[in-house]
Design brief:
The complex is a heterodimer of chains A (about 575) and B (about 120). Chain A has about 575 residues and is an alpha/beta fold. Chain B has four helices and five strands, in the order βαβαβαββα. The chains are: A alpha/beta (about 575), B alpha+beta (about 120). The interface of A and B includes residues 133, 134, 135, 141 and 159 of A.
Chain lengths: ~575, ~120
C-alpha cells in the first residue's frame, strides 16, 4: 500500500515532464488565417506572445496586422483589439475595406475594438516625471470590452516620436510587453525598418519570440513583395523568402519552396487531343498530373498544340485554366477557331477559363501567386501557360518556375507550358532551364527546304512511357492539327510540298512499274498459252501414236494366230499322228 | 480620488498685472491613474501655480482613469499624469508631475518659450 502511494507522484511527475517536452517541441500557436503564412510558420504565430512584423514603408505591415485580427474574429472566434498610432480608425477602416474586410460590422458586433492613440509632440510639454499608464488603461479597456485574445500595436514606434525620455520609454515598453504576456494576448507589433537594423527603434530587443520581415523590392520596374520569418523562437519555420501578394482578398503568401518531392503520381493517361500524338506517346497521351513542355520557334504551332489539349480536356468534362501572356482571350478564341478548335463552346459551358495578362504587369512572384489563386478558385485538372518564356524574360524566373511546376504537380494538375525558343539557339536549350522538371518534352521545329518552311514535331523525352523517336510532320489544317509521316529516303527528310512532289514522283514511278509488270504478265501469259497449245498438240500426237501402237499389236496377234491355225490345219491334212 | 473640483469664482483683483488675461477663466483637467505619489505631486504643483498666476480664475478637475478608464481614449491620454488646458483655447497638454515650473508655465502659455 505504501509502495503504491509512493509510486503515484513519481508516475504523474514523469507524465508532466513528458507533457512539458511535448509543449517545448510544439509551441502553442495562433493561426493567422493568412493564406500561406500558417504553412511557413507551421501553424501560426506564437500564442500568448508578441510577434514583430517589420519592414519599410508601404510593404504591407498594417494590412498583415489587420488581416490577422479580422481573420481571428471571423475564422477563429478570437476577438481583437487594434491600437493604431498613425492612422485614425476611420482611415484604417476605409483602407482595409477595399480588401474586403468590413471592420465596421465587426466593431458593431463587439468583436473588434479600435483605439487610435494620437501623439503629437508639438502639443505636449514635458514637465517632470511621468509614465504611460494612460496607454495601459486604454488597452485594458479595449481588451475587456471585446474579450480580446489578439492585439495589434501599429506602430508603437510612434511613441518614440512623441516622448523625449528614452530611458522611460524603454522601461515602459518592457512593462507593456510583460503586461500583454501576462494576459496571454497574442500580439502583433509593427515596426518601421531602420538602417541596418530590423526596426529603427530596436523593437526587436523587446520582442524576442517571433520576427517577420516584409520586403518590397522593385527590380526592373517590377515590384515584388516578399516575406521572411527572421526568427521564431522554440519552433522550426520556413526560412526562405516567400513572395506574397495583396489583392482583393488580402494577403497570400506563396510557400511553394516548402513543398517536397513526395507528391502522388497518377498512372492515368489523358489524351492530347491529337490522336496521332497519343500514339507517339506510347498510346494514350500524357500522364495525368505531369508537366509538359512544348518548345519551338515563333509560329511553329505551340499554342495550337496547347489549345488542342485544352479543348480535349474540356471535352472530357474537366476544367482547364488557360493562362495567356501574349494574346487576349478573344484573339485566342478567334485564332483557334480558324484551325478548327472551338474554344468558344468550352468557354460557354464553363469548362475553360482563359486569363490573359501582360507578363510585365507585375513580378514573377505575383504572377505565380495569381496563378496559385486562380487554380484554387477554379480547381482545374489542366493548366496551360502560354508561354512561359515571356514570364522568364522578366526576372530570375527559373527558380520561380520550378516552384510553379512543383505546385501544379503536387496539386495533380496536368500542365502544358509553351516556350518560345529564340531563333538560332539550340532547340534543346530552353533558356528557362526547367527541363529537369519536365516529364514530357515536345519540340516543334521548322524544317526549311525547297523554299518553304514546314513544321516538324518530335518527342525529346517522355518519362515513364515508350515514346516514338520519329519526326512527324505537323500540319495545321482547318480541321485541326494532323501529324503525318515525313519522307525519309535517300534524299533526306522531306516535308511539305517537297514531300508531296516526291510522293508524286513516286506515284508516277509506281504507275510505270505497274504497267511494265502488267505487260510482262501478259507476255508470259501468252507464252504460257503457246506452250499449252504445244502441249495439247503433242498430247494429241501421243494419243495417236498410242492408238497406232495398239492397232499394230492386235494385227500382229491376229496374224500370229492365223499362222498357227494354218500350220495346225496343214499338219492335220498331212496325217497328223506325229504331232498328237 | 474621484472627480474633484477645486476652484474660486471670485472676481479678479483690479490690480492684476496682466489685464488681458484678467478676464479669462481657466479650466484645467488633471488626469491621473490612482493616487500615486506622482499624481499627488502633480496636483499640489498645479494648485500652487494656479494660485500664483490665476488666483480665483481657475477650476481644476481631477480625472482618475482608474475610475473612469474610458475617458483615456476619449480625451487621448497616454502619459500619466497629464494636465489639459481646456480653457482658454486652444487646448494644451502638459505631461509629467509639473515639478518643472518654468516648463509648466510655457506649456500653459503663461510664459513664452525662452523667456
Amino acid at each position: 500500500m505504501t509502495g503504491f502511494m509512493n509510486d503515484l507522484p513519481a508516475v504523474s511527475r514523469a507524465a508532466s515532464v513528458e507533457a512539458d517536452n511535448a509543449a517545448a517541441r510544439s509551441l502553442p500557436k495562433c493561426p493567422t488565417g493568412i493564406g500561406g503564412l500558417d504553412e511557413i510558420t507551421f501553424g501560426g504565430l506564437p500564442r500568448g506572445r508578441p510577434t514583430l512584423v517589420c519592414g519599410s514603408a508601404g510593404c504591407g505591415k498594417t494590412l498583415l496586422a489587420m488581416e490577422f485580427l479580422v481573420r481571428g474574429v471571423t475564422e477563429f472566434g478570437e476577438p481583437g483589439v487594434y491600437v493604431t498610432f498613425e492612422e485614425t480608425e476611420e482611415e484604417l477602416a476605409q483602407n482595409v475595406r477595399s480588401l474586403g474586410f468590413d471592420v465596421d460590422v465587426l466593431v458593431q458586433q463587439g468583436r473588434l475594438a479600435f483605439d487610435y492613440v494620437h501623439i503629437d509632440r508639438r502639443e505636449i510639454e514635458e514637465t517632470g516625471e511621468y509614465d504611460l499608464e494612460g496607454l495601459f488603461v486604454r488597452l485594458a479597456v479595449a481588451v475587456e470590452s471585446v474579450g480580446a485574445k489578439r492585439v495589434v500595436l501599429d506602430t508603437i514606434e510612434a511613441l518614440f516620436g512623441g516622448f523625449s525620455n528614452m530611458a522611460l520609454l524603454r522601461s515602459e515598453l518592457r512593462r507593456l510587453f510583460r503586461w500583454l504576456k501576462d494576459r496571454n494576448l497574442t500580439v502583433v507589433i509593427t515596426g518601421e525598418r531602420g538602417d541596418g537594423t530590423l526596426t529603427r527603434q530596436g523593437l526587436e530587443e523587446y520582442v524576442s519570440d517571433c520576427v517577420i520581415l516584409l520586403d518590397h523590392r522593385v527590380d526592373e520596374q517590377i515590384s515584388t513583395r516578399r516575406l521572411r520569418v527572421v526568427k521564431y523562437r522554440g519552433t522550426s519555420h520556413g526560412t526562405n523568402e516567400y513572395p506574397f501578394l495583396i489583392d482583393a482578398r488580402g494577403i497570400s503568401v506563396l510557400p511553394i519552396t516548402s513543398l517536397g518531392l513526395d507528391h502522388h503520381v497518377s498512372n492515368e493517361r489523358v489524351g492530347t487531343g491529337i490522336a496521332r500524338l497519343d500514339v507517339m506517346l506510347g498510346g494514350g497521351g500524357f500522364y495525368r498530373g505531369s508537366s509538359i513542355l512544348v518548345s519551338g520557334t515563333a509560329g511553329s504551332g505551340k499554342s495550337t498544340l496547347a489549345a488542342h489539349f485544352a479543348e480535349a480536356t474540356c471535352r472530357r468534362g474537366e476544367r482547364c485554366l488557360y493562362l495567356a501572356f501574349e494574346e487576349s482571350r478573344d484573339q485566342i478564341v478567334r485564332n483557334m477557331r480558324s484551325v478548327g478548335i472551338d474554344l468558344r463552346r468550352c468557354l460557354d459551358d464553363g469548362h475553360l477559363r482563359i486569363e490573359a495578362s501582360r507578363p510585365s504587369l507585375y513580378g514573377v512572384e505575383l504572377h505565380l501567386a495569381q496563378i496559385q489563386r486562380l487554380v484554387a478558385q477554379s480547381a482545374p485538372s489542366a493548366v496551360v501557360i502560354d508561354p512561359i518564356s515571356n514570364l522568364a524574360n522578366t526576372l530570375d524566373a527559373s527558380a520561380m518556375l520550378l516552384r510553379l511546376m512543383d505546385f501544379l504537380k503536387t496539386s495533380g494538375i496536368t500542365a502544358i507550358f509553351t516556350n518560345l525558343t529564340a531563333g538560332g539557339a539550340a532547340l534543346e536549350a530552353t533558356d528557362v532551364g526547367v527541363s529537369s522538371l519536365i516529364d514530357t518534352w515536345i519540340v516543334l521545329r521548322d524544317i526549311e527546304a525547297g523554299g518553304e518552311r514546314n513544321r516538324g514535331l518530335y518527342v525529346i523525352k517522355s518519362r515513364g512511357m515508350q515514346h516514338s523517336n520519329q519526326i512527324r510532320e505537323f500540319v495545321i489544317t482547318p480541321q485541326g492539327v494532323q501529324l503525318l509521316d515525313v519522307y525519309a529516303g535517300p534524299e533526306g527528310v522531306l516535308t511539305g510540298s517537297l514531300r508531296a512532289s516526291q510522293e508524286a514522283r513516286e506515284r508516277v514511278a509506281a504507275f510505270a512499274r505497274e504497267q511494265e509488270q502488267q505487260r510482262r504478265q501478259r507476255e508470259l501469259e501468252s507464252r504460257r498459252a503457246v506452250l499449252d497449245a504445244q502441249i495439247h498438240a503433242l498430247q494429241q500426237e501421243a494419243r495417236t501414236l498410242d492408238e497406232e501402237m495398239g492397232a499394230q499389236a492386235r494385227q500382229y496377234a491376229l496374224a500370229t494366230d492365223t499362222m498357227e491355225q494354218d500350220r495346225k490345219a496343214a499338219a492335220q491334212r498331212r496325217g497328223g499322228k506325229e504331232t498328237t | 480620488m474621484s472627480i474633484e473640483r477645486t476652484g474660486n469664482q471670485s472676481a479678479p483683483a483690479a490690480d492684476d498685472p496682466s489685464a488681458e488675461q484678467a478676464e479669462e477663466q481657466w479650466e484645467l483637467r488633471l488626469y491621473t491613474a490612482g493616487q500615486t505619489p506622482k499624481s499627488i505631486l502633480a496636483f499640489n504643483n498645479l494648485k500652487r501655480i494656479c494660485e500664483e498666476h490665476m488666483p480665483g480664475r481657475y477650476q481644476i478637475e481631477v480625472v482618475d482613469l482608474m475610475r473612469n478608464p474610458r475617458l483615456a481614449k476619449e480625451d487621448q491620454i497616454v502619459a500619466i499624469p497629464t494636465l489639459v488646458r481646456k480653457l482658454p483655447q486652444p487646448l494644451r497638454k502638459i505631461i509629467g508631475d509639473l515639478s518643472d515650473t518654468e516648463r509648466t508655465l510655457v506649456g500653459l502659455q503663461l510664459r513664452s518659450r525662452g523667456k
